[in-house]
Amino acid sequence: MWIAQNEIQRGAGHRFYDKLNELLREAGFDRKAEQLCAPYFDPDHTPGRRSIAPGVYSRTHLIGYFEGIESERGIEWRCADSMSLRELLGLKLTERVPDHSTLSKMRVQLPLEVHQQAFVLILGIVERKGLLRGRVSGVDSTFLRADASMKAIVRRDT
């Protein structure tokens, strides 16, 4: 069975991801991400397969964060399964999503400072558009025993 790509019906998409992608594009995020990562990559004329674009790499990890996915394999599967996420990554329907092993290698190759700078860059873009609110964050570290706690289990056959 063969269906032309332009004949595939697409829904409205995910409003949040569409807006985020629009903001990142307007701010030139991809170019800035490439500049951040440039010192850690070989020049383009180096033999071998090209790596994932830093902007796409950053977006995949945003997807993992927003979707609550903790593994690169899970991120790869989720992106492959969603047309909205493919659009966020700038991939056509016929293009393969970034492989989990490549995502993992890039995570190891790029130092923590680059990841932090990319995240701060994204937060700055969102903040300038007035979409980031709040000034205080709190952490609740109260210890509560769950009902299924081993200390609460009572033998009932006696």
Overview of the molecule:
The chain is an all-alpha fold. The protein is built from seven helices and no strands. Helix 1 packs parallel to helix 5, helix 4 crosses helix 5 and helix 4 crosses helix 6. The longest helix is centred in the C-terminal third of the chain and has 17 residues. 16% of the residues are buried.
Give the SSE map.
Layout: H1 15-26, H2 29-37, H3 54-67, H4 72-81, H5 83-89, H6 100-109, H7 112-128
Q: What percentage of amino acids are in beta strands?
A: under 5%
- Number of structural units classed as domains: 1
Taking Cα atoms only, what radius of gyration do you get, to the nearest Å?
Answer: 21 Å
Question: Which secondary-structure class do the elements indicate?
Answer: mainly alpha
Low-confidence stretches: none
Key attributes of the depicted protein:
globular; 158 residues; mainly alpha; single chain
Could you write a compact summary of the structure shown?
With 158 residues, the chain is an all-alpha fold. Helices cover 50% and strands 0% of the residues.
